[in-house]
């Protein structure tokens, strides 16, 4: 049973934490992980110093149910995968603590509906409508651009996570669906492991021969040209390795939440600059104002968009 009014909102994991911030920052009881100084710069001062709560979901869960109860939340919010694993976790936590727990589908395709639903639950329907409308317009923009890009001009892409660049997500993964949403082909297939993230080998990567690599990791980005064997990969050889912006959250992943909406515009500009015709600086200003409640100056914009191409 949902509470009539949510005044203390607990986020189960990083994707939910982003949604809580954009919809109901004043109701947050804390951050899953304390934001770094670099991240805090791009968050509202009123909430950037909230305490660290730990996480209930995903790899590295750090929170005991005793600590959850001690936080006295009105509601636990989770946002992301809605597989049986997460459903059973939600049911177990709710039954053992008596705290209502909502699990919202975080799949990219249903972002507008999920924003509206979550906002209604949190008593913020107007806010949810505004953000959902932005998401719908962004998806329409993507479809409009793709309508001008023939299939044979859409890139084959590998998403490189981690300092070695060998952690990725297979096709259909919540971590890589943004790549597929902009019409690119995710080359990662046939990966072992469980869940949305898996490890690839350099041999697999050489066999896949992606034409572009998008990475979330600056150390990998800076070192990729000198890493043994990587010069055999087409994207590296031809200088098409792209470092995605990452503040205050990753624009492509890390976490896979509504922060990815600005990442769609970045990918359109990266892969299809002529067809997209976007002013990414203006788009970034607008997104940060609307979603994150912060106004960026020119220096901050330069640092956000300073990711270069490894040549």
Strand order of the largest sheet: 6-4-8-9-10
**Count of helical stretches:** 14
Average per-residue pLDDT, rounded, comes to 94
Percent of residues in β-strands: 5-15%
Low-confidence parts lasting 5 or more residues at pLDDT below 50?
none
**Coarse structural class:** alpha/beta
Mind describing the biggest β-sheet? 5 strands, mixed
Principal-axes geometry comes out as globular
The helix/strand order is EHHHEHEHHEEHEEHEHHEHHHHE
Number of strands: 10
Please tell me how large the radius of gyration is. Answer: 20 Å
- Roughly how many Å apart are the termini? 55 Å
Range of helix content:
40-55%
Describe this structure in words.
This protein is an alpha/beta fold and 311 residues long. The protein has helices at 14-23, 37-40, 65-70, 84-97, 111-121, 125-146, 177-181, 202-208, 218-223, 234-237, 260-271, 273-276, 280-292, 298-304, and strands spanning 9-11, 75-80, 101-105, 156-160, 167-168, 185-186, 198-199, 212-215, 241-243, 309-310. Strands 6-4-8-9-10 form a 5-stranded mixed sheet. A 3-stranded parallel sheet has the order 1-2-3, with helices on both faces. A two-stranded antiparallel ribbon has the order 5-7. Helix 5 runs antiparallel to helix 6 and helix 6 (125-146) packs parallel to helix 11 (260-271). The longest helix is centred in the middle third of the chain and has 22 residues, at 125-146. It is globular and about 55 Å long.
């Amino acid at each position: 049973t949902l509470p009539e009014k949510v005044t203390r909102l607990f986020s189960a994991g990083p994707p939910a934490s982003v949604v809580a911030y954009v919809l109901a920052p004043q109701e947050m009881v804390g951050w899953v992980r304390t934001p770094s100084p670099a991240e805090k710069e791009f968050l509202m001062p009123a909430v950037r110093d909230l305490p660290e709560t730990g996480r209930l979901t995903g790899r590295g869960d750090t929170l005991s149910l005793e600590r959850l109860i001690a936080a006295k939340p009105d509601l636990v919010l989770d946002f992301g995968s809605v597989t049986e694993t997460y459903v059973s976790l939600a049911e177990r936590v709710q039954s053992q603590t008596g705290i209502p727990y909502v699990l919202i589908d975080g799949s990219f395709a249903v972002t507008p509906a999920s924003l509206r639903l979550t906002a209604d639950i949190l008593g913020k329907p107007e806010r949810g409508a505004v953000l959902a409308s932005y998401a719908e317009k962004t998806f329409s923009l993507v479809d409009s651009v793709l309508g001008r890009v023939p299939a044979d001009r859409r890139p084959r892409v590998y998403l490189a996570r981690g300092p070695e660049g060998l952690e990725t997500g297979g096709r259909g993964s919540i971590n890589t669906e943004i790549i597929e949403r902009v019409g690119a082909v995710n080359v990662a297939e046939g990966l072992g492991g469980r869940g949305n993230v898996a490890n690839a080998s350099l041999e697999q990567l050489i066999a896949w021969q992606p034409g572009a690599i998008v990475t979330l990791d600056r150390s990998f980005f800076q070192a990729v040209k000198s890493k043994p064997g990587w010069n055999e990969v087409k994207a590296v050889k031809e200088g098409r390795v792209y470092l995605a912006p990452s503040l205050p959250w990753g624009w492509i992943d890390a976490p896979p939440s509504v922060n990815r909406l600005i990442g769609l515009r970045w990918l359109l500009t990266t892969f299809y600059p002529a067809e997209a015709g976007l002013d990414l600086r203006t788009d970034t200003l607008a997104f940060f104002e609307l979603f994150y409640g912060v106004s960026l100056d020119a220096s901050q914009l330069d640092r956000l968009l300073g990711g270069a191409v490894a040549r």
